[in-house]
Amino acid sequence: MTEIVTIQGLQKKFGKFQALRDVSFTVNAGEVVGFIGPNGAGKSTAIRILLGIMKRDAGQAQIFGKDVWKDSLEIHKRISYVPGDVTLWGNLTGGEIIDLFLKLHGGGNKKKRDYLIKRFELDPKKKAKGYSKGNRQKVGLIAALSADSDLYIFDEPTSGLDPLMEAIFQEEVEKIKETGKSILLSSHILSEVERLADKVAIIRQGEIVESGSLDDLRHLTRSAITLVTEGDVAEMTNVNGVFDFEQKEDQATFSADNKHLDEILMAASKLGVKKFESVPPTLEDLFMRHYES
Amino acid sequence: MRENFAQWETLFLLNLKRDWKKIIVWILGFGLFSAAFVPAFKEIAKGNGLLGMFETLQNPAMIAMVGPTPVGTAVDYTLGAMYAHEMLLFCGLFSMVIAVLHVVGHTRKEEDLGLTELVRSFQIGRQANSFAAIMQIVFINLLLSLFISVVMISFDAETISVEGAFLFGASVGIAGIIGAAIALVMVQIMPASSSATGSTLGIIGLLYIIRAGTDVSNVDLSMLNPLGWTYLTYPFTENNWIALVFALIFSLIAVVVAFSLERGRDMGAGYLPSREGRESAANSLLSVHGLFIKLNRGTIISWLIAFIVMGAAYGSIYGDMQTFLESNEIMKQMFAQADVSIEESFTSTIMMVMIALVSILPIAIVNKLFAQENRAYLSQIFATKVTRSRLYWTSIGLAIITGAAGILIAAGSLGGTAVSAMGGRSTMEIADFLGSGFNFLPSLLFFIGLASLALGWSPKSGKVVYVYLAYSFLLNYFGGIVDLPEWFSKTAIQSWIPRLPLEDFDASIFITITLMSIALIIIGHFGYNRRDMIEGA
Ligand SMILES: Nc1ncnc2c1ncn2[C@@H]1O[C@H](COP(=O)(O)OP(=O)(O)OP(=O)(O)O)[C@@H](O)[C@H]1O
Ligand SMILES: [Mg+2]
Prior knowledge:
- The complex is a heterodimer of chains A (293) and B (537).
- With 293 residues, chain A is an alpha/beta fold.
- Chain A has ten helices and 14 strands.
- In chain A, the strands form three sheets. A six-stranded mixed sheet of chain A has the order 6-7-8-3-9-10, with helices on both faces. Chain A has a four-stranded antiparallel sheet with strand order 2-1-4-5.
- In chain A, helix 3 (94-105) runs parallel beside helix 5 (133-145).
- Chain A is elongated, with a radius of gyration of 23 Å.
- Chain B is mostly helical and 537 residues long.
- Chain B has 24 helices and no strands.
- The complex binds adenosine-5'-triphosphate and magnesium ion.
- Chain A: One of its GO terms (molecular function) is ATP binding.
């Protein structure tokens, strides 16, 4: 597998404040990587370093095997970027700005542009100063999605979009994914990340605290179990890997450590299972665990 | 190296497209202002005009304001010499200020707004934007220079030579480039666009004041001053092109320094460290007026310091005036006939200039309320029990108090320095200076009134108040030199006010203009209370 983005031990200080302590992760060809973490964790900073807009203090950062600072222009030929807050020149129209961005990018697709303008229901003739927040965001998205790139970097791309438009964005990203492009997606909308991402990297206070495929990560955490047994269900409290046990009449709900699933099942079957439901952890659960710890 | 500037030409063309209206107004408006007074000056030159003007402008106080002339005797003082003498320094100064505002607007301001981030994600060199901005300045100033020269030549005046006209135009153009180059350096150092603009204008103001001193004491020293390289070209007389070469070299070095500073900093960052602030608000912040004072504090303090320096700089000239009179028989007779002292005469002129400058500060404070509103900083305050009237009157009140303080400080500083410079020979007391300054209080209130009116009824035109201020300032300034029709000069508010101490105080005019200003403020209040709040337009 070719590595499209490689980050190793990235560090960045703003004055005395250490914004990034140790950030490492990779994005492989054809992969969508979700980049998530609490506010101020350092996501946008890491992305700005990847774009060569800010200079790192230490560590390695490469895209397409090239250094993100030294070869940024070479890299920018093949990437597209959408920030969470798209700012535009007030006296140009949305259509003009999209065309300009495509020209600056160099690899624009006119047909796709028109198609996306229709899909996102953007009025391209309006001056940018008259756009609402969501409409400004659409301008950035349309420009990025209609450019032909190998890596797409999105930093909270759907902030301000309505749910309908968000769905359209997700569909379009899936299409891009199918053509084998790589995507780095930072977002607080975890359902979006869960739907699109193959892998996630969770950052907290400038450090990557968890990374891997969603399945792997799920494995590391707990599923929510609902259980009804013939015997006394309260005995389950003592089983290894059972947490947050709660009982209502003869029905128990608890979270189960996936590592101990086998033991839990054995103990339950000894009591005689009448009902067993397991809900895999959502990304949200995963995330909360890292937020709170 | 070249990579850093990649695709600058795309941004350059984009900026031309975005700015074309502004550029046309800039070149035509400012170009005509610089070049088209030739016929008016022809009028002055008639009869003994040239001689009279030559003698008047020998006064060190006048040199401090408009600069020196290389001409030694009145016979050589031609129309061209006079035009360059009286116009070039001012035009150069103006040219610089416009260029500074433009450069900061296209570089640091866009960074602060977040525009740069998206642009840099394309195949655009890291410094392409700065380079495009500086190239645009060069381009505009080139056109401006040509336009000025052609307009001047078109008047076909005998002593306005073609070479001189081109040099005059080029001097105004180079002034813009110098201003832009200094601005580009400050853009890299300062933590935000507003401080970059403020510090650059401060530097230019300082250069102006320093050159006032060196022009009077030793003109050669002014040749070390970047501002000097504009008006010391002496068009139509010495045609000193070499000054332009200094200016070009200086600008080039400044731009190179700016670019290497830019390479070493992150987007959105400066070189001045930002300190950590307090965790909870001080009690002095916890009120509408506390907030407004805090928001305007930096501006107010820097302007008040500027007023002190300005007053002291002009005040220090008073010592030389008597010496000058004693050495100049014609001038001595002129003043003796008019039965005024040279100091009083100068005070009445310089006070008009200073109070016009002081008026900028309160206008800025009133306009700031709309700037805050437009950036949606106030939206959460609007949603509290704080009334609009409260916001309005706090701003207006702050403007009036700082305006009055500005007059006190400027006139006081001028008077204090002047009285001590004149020593025992003083014909004036500090009270005369303060009286002369506060005599202009109604005009200051009038500008606050206009700004309030704009704030209430048409907030986007708040900037027009500055335009009117500049207009009325120039009208008064040149009104002393060129004979303007009465109705025309009366379109400037200051023209209604008698110049103290030369003329007598007129209580009825003082009261009338004050009442008019209060009426404007009240009308503005009506508008402000009922109009839509405009956010993010
Ligand atoms: N230019 C800057 N100067 C000083 N500190 C900065 C700067 N940019 C970011 N920081 C700090 O670095 C930290 C990381 O910021 P960053 O914007 O990367 O967070 P983020 O993970 O993108 O957060 P969010 O989810 O809110 O977008 C924050 O504490 C922020 O205050
Ligand atoms: Mg962010």
